[in-house]
Amino acid sequence: MQHLDLQVIEQALAWARDDETVWLCTVLSTFGSSPREPGSLLVARRDGRHVGSLSGGCVEEDFLERLREGDFDEPVSTLRYGDGGADGSGIALPCGGMLDVLIERLTPASSNLVHLEVLHATMLGRRALVRCIDLTSGRKHFVQDAGTGPRVSHDTERDSVQVRVGPAARLILAGLSPVAEACAEFARTLGFEVIACDPRDEVRASFDLPGIEVQSVLPSTFIASGACHAATAVVALTHDPRIDDLAMIEAVRTPAFYIGVMGSQRTSDARAERLQRSGDLSDDDIARIRMPIGLALGSKTPAEIALAVMADVVRVQRGRSRDAL
Questions:
Q1: Which residue range or ranges hold the XdhC Rossmann domain (predicted)?
Q2: pLDDT at 230
Q3: How far apart are CA 42 and CA 50, in angstroms?
Q4: SS3 of residue 197 by DSSP
Q5: In this structure, are residues 158 and 96 in contact, taking their beta carbons and an 8 Å threshold?
Q6: Least C-beta-crowded within 10 Å: which of 24, 86, 98, 229?
Q7: Which of 63, 40, 61 is nearest to 52 (CA)?
Q8: pLDDT recorded at residue 168
Q9: CA–centroid distance for 290 within its chain
Q10: Which of 207, 118, 117, 212 is nearest to 170 (CA)?
Q11: Which domains does the chain have, with CATH numbers?
Q12: DSSP string computed for 229-274
């Protein structure tokens, strides 16, 4: 899940608690070019206020216009864009693509509030669930996620869809530096929730990026507090072993999908030996740490190094091997 989708559910929950009816839209499938993957979310009110994205432009405009005109009063409906205008008002997507959207009309009933609250807690927590939506009645419920399969699947026999829901992607920056600052900007635009941890007052004073949470504690302390779930990446980019090493020792004890630390190959070899000796890390623990961090792009500047780091994070997140690049 992207952090943007978490913001969608937070806004949906806030509106529902204010007795507003909301329309929750989910991308079911895409064909061809599409900037948003299946499972992506948008929430809107009848007056056109909305949070989230379905395609990045024309689809949202058409949907919101039709919503203001009184469409989508059914509990649940589906809409296809880009297929010759079959039911998407003739909207054409780039490169001949198509987009299927699920639209749920959620009144501020207690059952819908509970459903949104469970969805919100799932995006913040450690346990993944599957949303099951009946396309005829609009009834919905959660089941345990087995951890495998596509993000969205369609059961044609039962005329229902299943949407896997898990924690929103999170990036923990273990310490601040020019590279970490550039990394934060990349990660934010990629849809990560970004949390920067650094106990040094003078370093935090020069760090000011909107939308980035800053914790004034040692990264290792924050990581050990339970801040990492399976959709978390932990990166240490300070060149300060007092910060980086402790963060790595704690990070390997978590389910984080990506753990990496900056440094040359020589520095990385020395760090591995040091972590095994003083941190009591096993060979398997060391193998989880990507050092040197990032893709070998020949990066020199902070922005180039940050690009290499986030490219590698996304590679692992998407399950791509380096050989496949």
A1: 171-313
A2: 87
A3: 7
A4: strand
A5: no
A6: 86
A7: 40
A8: 85
A9: 21
A10: 212
A11: 3-165 (no CATH), 170-324 (3.40.50.720)
A12: -TTEEEEE-SS-HHHHHHHHHHHTTS--SEEEE---HHHHHHHHHH
> How long, in residues, is the chain?
325
Within the chain, strands assigned E span 22-31, 41-44, 50-52, 76-81, 98-106, 129-134, 140-144, 152-155, 160-165, 170-174, 193-197, 213-215, 232-236, 258-261, 289-290
Tokens, residue 126: 């450690």
Residue 10 is predicted with a pLDDT of: 95
State how far Cα 239 lies from the chain centre. Answer: 27
Written as six digits, the tokens of 24 are: 């929750």
Buried/exposed 271-284: b ≥16 CB within 10 Å, e otherwise: bbeebeeebebeee
Task: Read off the pLDDT of residues 243-294 as tens digits, 9 standing for 90 and up.
Answer: 999 999 999 999 999 999 999 999 999 999 999 998 899 999 999 999 999 9
- Distance CA(193)–CA(195), nearest Å, equals 7
Taking residue 38's Cβ as centre, other Cβ atoms within 10 Å add up to: 18
Instruction: Look at residue 304 in the predicted model and tell me its pLDDT.
Output: 97
Enclosing H/E stretch for 317: helix 302-317
Neighbour tally for 58: CB within 10 Å: 17
Angle at which helices 265-278 and 241-251 pack, to 10 degrees? 60
Compute the distance between CA of residue 96 and CA of residue 89 in angstroms, rounded to an integer: 15
Please report where in the chains the tokens 């807690």 appear, as a residue: 121
CA 151, CA 128: separation in Å to the nearest integer? 11
Token pair for residue 10? 């937070």
DSSP-derived secondary structure letter, 172: E
Separation between Cα atoms, residue 6 and residue 2, nearest integer Å: 7
What pLDDT does residue 318 have?
86
User: What pLDDT was estimated at residue 94?
Assistant: 58
For the chain, residues with pLDDT lower than 70 are: 1, 32-35, 56, 83-96, 126, 147-148
3-state secondary structure of 64: helix
